[in-house]
Automatic annotation (TrEMBL):
Gene: ETNPPL
Taxonomy, superkingdom: Eukaryota
Organism: Sparus aurata
Protein family according to the UniProt entry: Belongs to the class-III pyridoxal-phosphate-dependent aminotransferase family.
GO cellular component, as recorded: mitochondrion
Protein name: Ethanolamine-phosphate phospho-lyase
Pfam families: Aminotran_3
């Protein structure tokens, strides 16, 4: 096939564009050859991105987009130090981890130095899903138990074992049968959840629910292998668990002979600003038994890691089965992982996450005073959520409005997404080089969009307490950002982790 526009140059930089085909041709070929469940952002008007740098992405015409959502390009898209480290190592050697190589051990040592001492043994794998699947295997082998507790709205990956523990993927599908060994605890969401900010001790109440689940499992003759949770729930709606929750859950779970798995795939590597790992927000007295890492670890290079204790690792080895992973821990991935850690330190990106994250949160808090559609602003560092509601008392999710915000921002070349069980939480998780000017820009645009939306809805701060029945006066798109709406139920999802499983499933 003949390339159509191979030597196009981007308008703003003079650099060679990576565009080979005209946009329509790319779309046609995608429809023909790529599985239909692999959704695309803004499906009725998709964006073709051909290059990126820092917190910016560029389309085929050289149009720049501000990226507020890409937590994979952690230290900035195509960071030159990371690219250089990968390219240099690729020129020299890339092979599996059955040979001795310094990159592997030096990288393991560097990662370990960011963690509590007891988390000292690494397994390098290639994706967040692989990391979580291995974490489950470690837990099952170490404990000899089978039952897993997961959280409502959790997402942990796309492989079969993880769909089972990811209610985010199946909770709205009536024909999915839950795995009998999986138990779902309430999400520790103090805004919309079972126990809210006005509860005297939400951490204990949510942890007691986990204890109750353990009790019910025991009554049926089961035994707990693991409790698994993201340190801060991301797809679940940017949820910040109340301090002390993890400690109490860990106590109940360990008493039952289980282990605590902290999924840091989205939130690790300094994003939360005050700490390198988000589980550390709970306090120095909390240490998980297994930590899984992914997305930001390689700044876009497919790599990930599971870190655990010596005891868990030894029990895993005792099974007698060798663990071999063709690509995990190869010299190129380790060189890239080391470069990412170097850049975080060299450019003080954790400090930037703290400063810019705080600034962004303050700006959004000010917007909340002005806009009745904003129900809650929550976050740590550059992991921030803004939940839109049509009624601040009833917390009626403003789902269509959230999608409208996302769509209008896209028209103004800003990429943001909405998530959570009602898809009404605007989530900010940009590359950590995001600046306060970027924060000013996105908040200013959101301010305008919300003003327009509230005018259309006739919403004012003083009459928002009972606005549930207000209907939007102008037409909102039926499908935004890959989500389809039908009777308030999301049927499909285009961003992030993909599309729900549609088939009835029985396993184990
Ligand atoms: C919290 C969490 N864990 C695990 C995964 C799976 O990672 P991957 O898509 O790299 O397999 C994701 C992906 O979105 C995630 O958000």
């Amino acid at each position: 096939m003949k390339p159509v526009c191979q030597s196009a140059r981007t308008a703003d930089s003079g650099r060679m564009s990576a565009e080979i085909l005209e946009k329509k041709k790319t779309l046609d070929l995608r429809k023909k050859h790529i599985g239909p469940s692999c959704k695309i952002f803004f499906s009725h008007d998709p964006i073709k991105i051909v290059r990126a740098r820092g917190q910016y992405m560029y389309d085929e015409k050289g149009q720049r987009y501000l990226d507020c959502i890409n937590n994979v390009a952690h230290v900035g898209h195509c960071h030159p130090d990371v690219v250089k480290a990968g390219a240099e190592q690729m020129e020299l050697l890339n092979t599996n981890s059955r040979f001795l190589h310094d990159n592997l051990v030096l990288y393991a040592q560097r990662l370990q130095a960011t963690l509590p001492n007891k988390l000292s043994v690494c397994y390098f794998v290639n994706s967040g899903s692989e990391a979580n699947d291995l974490a489950l295997r470690l837990a099952l082998q170490y404990t000899g138990h089978k039952d897993i507790i997961t959280l409502e709205n959790a997402y942990h990956g796309h492989v079969s074992s993880l769909i089972d523990i990811s209610p985010y993927k199946f909770h709205h599908l009536s024909d999915v049968e839950q795995n009998q060994f999986v138990h779902v605890a309430p999400s520790p969401d103090v805004y919309r959840g079972k126990y809210r900010a006005d509860h005297p001790n939400p951490a204990k109440a949510y942890a007691d629910d986990v204890k109750d689940i353990i009790g019910r499992v025991h009554e049926k003759g089961g035994k707990i292998a693991a409790f698994t949770a993201e340190s801060l729930q991301s797809c679940g709606g940017q949820v910040i668990p109340p301090p002390g929750y993890f400690q109490q859950v860990a106590e109940h779970v360990r008493q039952a002979g289980g282990v605590f798995i902290a999924d840091e795939v989205q939130v690790g590597f300094g994003r939360v600003g005050t700490h390198f790992w988000a589980f550390q927000l709970q306090g120095a007295d909390f240490v998980p038994d297994i930590v899984t890492m992914g997305k930001p670890i390689g700044n876009g290079h497919p790599m990930s890691c599971v870190v655990t204790t010596k005891e868990v690792a030894e029990a895993f080895a005792l099974s007698g089965m060798e663990y071999f992973n063709t690509f995990g821990g190869n010299p190129v991935s380790c060189a890239i992982g080391l470069a990412v850690l170097d850049v975080i330190v060299k450019e003080d990106l954790q400090g930037n996450a703290l400063r810019v994250g705080q600034y962004l949160t303050e700006l959004l808090e000010k917007q909340k005073e002005k806009h009745p559609l904003i129900g809650d602003v929550r976050g740590r560092g550059l992991f921030v959520g803004m939940e839109l509601v049509k009624d601040r008392l009833k917390l009626t999710p403003a789902t269509a409005e959230a999608q409208e915000v996302i769509y209008k921002l896209k028209e103004q070349y800003i990429l943001l997404s909405a998530d959570g069980p009602h898809r009404n939480v605007l989530k900010f998780k940009p590359p950590l080089c995001f600046t306060s000017e970027d924060a000013d820009l996105v908040v200013e645009k959101i301010d305008h969009i919300l003003t327009e939306l509230e005018e259309a809805l006739g919403l004012k701060l003083h009459n928002t307490l009972n606005a549930e029945n207000d209907s939007i006066k102008r037409k909102l798109p039926a499908e935004e950002n890959g989500h389809q709406y039908h009777s308030g139920l999301i049927l499909n999802r285009g961003s992030g982790p993909g599309v729900p499983q549609q088939t009835k499933r029985h396993r184990r």
